[in-house]
Amino acid sequence: MTDIVYITVDSLRADHVGWHGYERDTTPFLDSLSESAHTFTNAFSHGCYTRQAFPAMMAAEYPSISQSHGGLSEEYTPLAEALSEAGYTTGGFHSNPHLLPQFGYHRGFDRFYDSDTESSKLARLRQWVKDTIPSQSFLYSTLEAVFSKTEEAGFNPGTPFVLADEITDLAIDWCQSVATESQRFLWVHYMDVHHPYSPPEEYQLAFREEAISERRAVKLRRKMVDQPEEVTDAELSDIVDLYDGEIRFVDDQVRRLVETVQSQWGADTLIAFTSDHGDELNDHDDFAHRDTLFDELAHVPLLIQCGEQQGVHEDMVGLMDLPPTFLECAGIEPPSTFRGESLVKIMEGGSTDQDYVLIDEGETIAYRDRSWKYIVGPGRVELYNIQNDPGEQINVVDQHPEVVEEIEATLEQYSELGTADSDELTAGEFSGEVQDRLEQLGYLQE
Question: Which domains, and CATH codes, for the chain?
Answer without folding.
Answer: 4-119+159-354 (3.40.720.10), 363-419 (3.30.1120.10)
